[in-house]
Amino acid sequence: MSLLYTDEQKALIALVKEMAENEIKPHVQELDEKGECPKDLFKWAFDMGLHMLEIPEEYGGTGLSYETTAMIFEELAKVDAGYAITLVTTFVALRNVILSGTPEQGKYFADIIGKGNFAAFALTEPNAGSDPAALRGTAVKDGDDYILNAAKTFITNGEIAALFVGFFKTDPAAGHKGISAFIVDADAAGITIGKHENKMGLRLSNTTDVTFENVRVPASSMVGPEGSGFKLALNALNLSRAFVATMAVGIMQRALDESVKYAKERKQFGQPIIKFQMVQQMLADMAIKTEASRVLVNNTMRMMDNGSLVRKEGSITKTFVSDCAQEVTSNAVQIFGGYGYSKEYPVEKLMRDCKIFQIFEGANQIQRLTIANELEREYK
Amino acid sequence: MNIVVCVKQVPDTTEIRIDPVKNTLIRQGVPSIMNPFDKNALEEALQLKEQYGGAVTVISMGPEQAKATLREALSMGADKAYLVTDRSFGGSDTYATSYILAKVIEKLGPFDVILGGKQAIDGDTGQTAPSIAEHLGIARLTHVLSIKIEGNKCIVEREIEEGVEIVEAKLPILCTATKETNKPRYATIKGKIDSLKAEIENITLADLPDIDVTKIGLKGSPTRVKSTFTPKRQSCCEMLEIINPRETARMLFGKLADAKIL
Amino acid sequence: MDLKQYQDVWVFVECFQGQPKDVGFELLGQGRLLADALKQKLCAVVIGKDVDEGIKGATAYGADIIYAVQGNEYANYSSDAYGYAFLELCARYHPNTILIGATANGRDLGSKLAICLNTGLTADCTALSVEEETGNVVWERPAFGGNLYARILCSETRPQMGTVRPGAFKKPEKFQNRQPVMIREVIHTKEEDILTKVIDFIKANDEAGVKLEEAEYIVSGGRGLKGPENFAMLQELADLLGGTVGASRASVDAGWIPQTKQVGQTGKTVSPKVYIACGISGAVQHLAGMTESDTIIAINKDATAPIFDVADYGIVGDVFEMVPAMIKEIRVSRNLN
To answer: What does the radius of gyration of chain C's CA atoms come to, in whole angstroms?
Structure first.
């Protein structure tokens, strides 16, 4: 453990660890095979308030700092990152409605989530992934309403969300400045949930297509001014990048824990393999990358707690941590040898789970572009 | 509905190891936890409160460190917690402990329902809770699975070896909970944070003026520990080699037959 | 207190719906040893609506005196009625020592008697002996999940009392044609003094087969079984042996098998002829419940597992290979295949 934890943080981490290990962990292997997670299993998280940790108390949340919230989510991700991201996606959506919307919108959203519901971002479209300006979905004004049409894809929580924050072009000619965000009830007429993605990893997390076909929403459901959707999306991505990084740290720590335990037990040539220098070096490098990642995430969280937008730092953190996680989990499989490749052992799943972290919330290539752009600006 | 739950802080006996050289208990580094059956008792109390209203008070006898267990109870939703602690209480057996706790319950009460675990995992006696009822002169039902309140009566499902008894009893009543009674909840994050800041009052001998001091502590305990020892395990195990599983099985059954065991 | 006034070793022969439980007879065996060491008599206490079977059993298992209390109010156990009857007997006959089975009702009764008689009660004793010079019973019992054993005395007060778990001792040999002194006491508990009333009873679903505490062969599974489905092969082996399946706390906690099957400190104490531990590491709390078995066979992948310290025969191997091999072997030898 590389961070200085307060007694309160230690107690909260221990509590979440106990819950996750007792209630979630026993089901993970089976659910990973099936590629689903029943809502019942989130009862534990909802009861504890894990979906509203950093939401201010006036909205029914616990009002924790980002820093402490991240520590808790690292612990949850150690058991399953797909479970964790279902909750992260929910509170990031809520947080952004609170930040950018009216108090009424914030209250409305928080009340529904507070009752034990999920939320989703409907941003990505088949032809607009790293380039949101290419969105084709539209919102057309019709009296006091808007009519929404879009084909969204790779929507985390798509099937289970009670509320969407959807992104649509109110001005199709205006590029990213023509994007506006709307709160849409999942049961609104015209919403169809498409196929559930059969993913490589994060298989407890629900990912689907979502189609909006002439969905009518009142104009009052627009979040922020018209044309501000892109900015909202960027803010949301900054926040979720920092939180996906914390989950990647959780995955890495789990990989390290499992690897050290195994290396001490597994004997070859008459001694535990942890006694072999080449294994030692791998384990040491895994520990170095895990600890460095954790400190980096912690720093970013504290900057966010101090009001920073972490445009560059969030990108640096997500990129570094997800690249490290790929290496660490791959080496965990290597240390387990043939057993590591088997689904009977826990590490191959960690390797599958963490690949997406280099891809989602902006691929690492795009992150590097962002970082370079920021650098260019800073050194003017 | 006024409910009191008696909880005990115990070492996690699954974590206790024996020093192989000195043949003594290694207690260092063994985490202290709330006795698991007491957690079921607390859960039952919280459910009764949710259903019938009222308040849940938690008491624990032990040293200052036992406040951690009381805080855990608060984090799960108990309303008030008291630590029963005094040097003169030290060394109490189940007779003396139940007497002291009965006096505390009289002081804090009256209560409609008193709950405790069916036994503590360190002492494993299962005697303290029913003994409290006897000191208080009230009805008791051990190993309960559920409690329904109907006016000044309760209907309780009680587990015995042969099955489940449905028992009717007048309030106040003392019940003990088991693992089968319920599944204890986890604290909420908010509950946990609040519990860390909560004030927990101590109840000492001075707070119990009518207590008979000849019935407490080591002196007031009719049983005394003469000596303790750790079980010596002398291995005389005959190891059977695995040639192949069938061959080994045949060898085993051969040996059992020779020894007239099978 | 003049301790000499208190004479005889009493055993509570607990009955359920008129049928005596084995634990009472197991205690008559131990009670005999104590009574002989103390040079006192061994007495059985039978309370119930029907006491005939209890008296018959107490006679066969060697009681010198039988105290019986009969009444409709004793049809079901209640702390108040049974407690009152037992306390009345104590007031009339002053026992030196009382042994009670550590059943749900026995523990409850023991607590009530100890508080009312202002005396000591030691729970879950696993060995009993007498200190010759003082006449105190030495109550030996495990604590801390079986990690520690304590010898406990109750030297200042009488009666001295202890509970013993069912299955901790074996039943003694039966006697033929014994004629104990029969004392029937008329003791009735007032209706209004009985605070709890049994209004209904749901018999436990006796899972097919033999009861754990009474089984002569037990095949037990632990964490090494990896999942609930794998208990089926243990059941098959147990069925072939005419025994039953048990489990460690780890597999019960994992929800693979009901708690009623748990062997150990917080489960049941067993002493079968043969105990086969499959994939059980042998945590002390498990050992506390099964080391009295006549023969212990351990199968575990880990050669350093503590279960091998208490086993008579050990196999370092895979339970998923060994158990099917054992089943096959039995089937072949009995021409079942």
So the answer is: 22
C-beta atoms of C144 and B122 within 8 A: yes
Residues of B in contact with A20 (CB under 8 A): none
Beta strands C148-153 and C137-143 are antiparallel
Distance CA A356, CA A351 (A): 10
**Closest Cα in chain B, distance from residue A27 (Å):** 18
Tell me, yes or no, if C326 comes closer than 8 A to chain B by beta carbon. yes
CATH number reported for the structural domain that contains residue B136 in this entry: 3.40.50.620
Same domain? A286 vs A238: yes
The Cα C204–Cα C32 span in angstroms is 33
Among the options A361, A374, A376, A378, which is catalytic? A361
Q: Which residue range(s) make up the domain with C126?
A: 3-193
The structure's pTM equals: 0.87
C316/B239 touch (CB, cutoff 8 Å), yes or no: yes
Tokens of C19: 């049928």
The CA-based dihedral angle spanning residues A93, A98, A100, A105, taken in that order and rounded to the nearest 10 degrees: 100
Choice among A44-53, B158-167, C232-241, C326-335 with the minimum mean pLDDT: C326-335
Are C116 and C260 in the same domain? no
Residue C204 lies in a domain: no
Give domain status of residue B43, yes or no.
Answer: yes
Q: How far apart are CA A305 and CA C73, in angstroms?
A: 70
Indicate whether C184 and C36 sit together in one domain: yes
Adjacent-strand bridge partners of B163? B160, C203
Distance from CA of B158 to the nearest CA of A (A): 27
For chain B, how many structural domains are there in total? 1
pLDDT exceeds 90 at position B259: no
Domain membership of residue A222 as a residue range: 119-230
Q: Are residues C160 and C47 in the same domain?
A: yes
In angstroms, what separates the C-alpha of B198 from chain C's closest C-alpha? 30
Give the contacts of A338 (CB within 8 A, at least 6 positions apart): none
A18 CB near a chain B CB, below 8 Å? yes
Number of domains in chain C: 2
HEC per residue, C180-232: CEEEEECCCCCHHHCCEEEEEEEECCCCCCCCHHHCCEEEEECHHHCCHHHHH
Which residue range is the domain that position B37 belongs to?
2-215
In tens digits, what is the pLDDT along chain A, a chain of 380 residues?
Answer: 578 999 999 999 999 999 999 999 989 999 999 998 899 999 999 999 999 999 999 999 999 999 999 999 999 999 999 999 999 999 999 999 999 999 999 999 999 999 999 999 999 999 888 788 889 999 999 999 999 999 999 999 999 999 999 999 999 999 899 999 999 999 999 999 998 999 999 999 999 999 999 999 999 999 999 999 999 999 899 999 999 999 999 999 999 999 999 999 888 898 999 999 999 999 999 999 999 999 999 999 999 999 998 989 999 999 999 999 999 999 999 999 999 999 988 999 999 999 999 999 999 999 999 999 999 999 98
Asked if B189 is an interface residue toward chain A (Cβ–Cβ < 8 A), one would say yes
The β-bridge relationship of strands A271-272 and A267-268 is: antiparallel
Q: What is the mean pLDDT of chain C?
A: 92
pLDDT confidence tier of residue B22, bands split at 50, 70 and 90: low
Task: Please tell me whether residues A96 and A210 are part of one structural domain.
Answer: no
Task: For residues A175 and A245, state if they share a domain.
Answer: no
Task: Tell me the torsion sign for CA atoms C297, C301, C307, C311.
Answer: positive
- B94, containing H or E segment: helix B94-108
Q: Does A296 map to a domain?
A: yes
Question: Would you state the pLDDT for residue B233?
Answer: 63
Q: A50 to chain B: nearest residue by CA? A: B189
Closest chain B residue to the Cα of C161, Cα to Cα: B223
Residue C200 within any structural domain of the chain: no
Position A263 in a domain: yes
Residues C171 and C228 in one domain: no
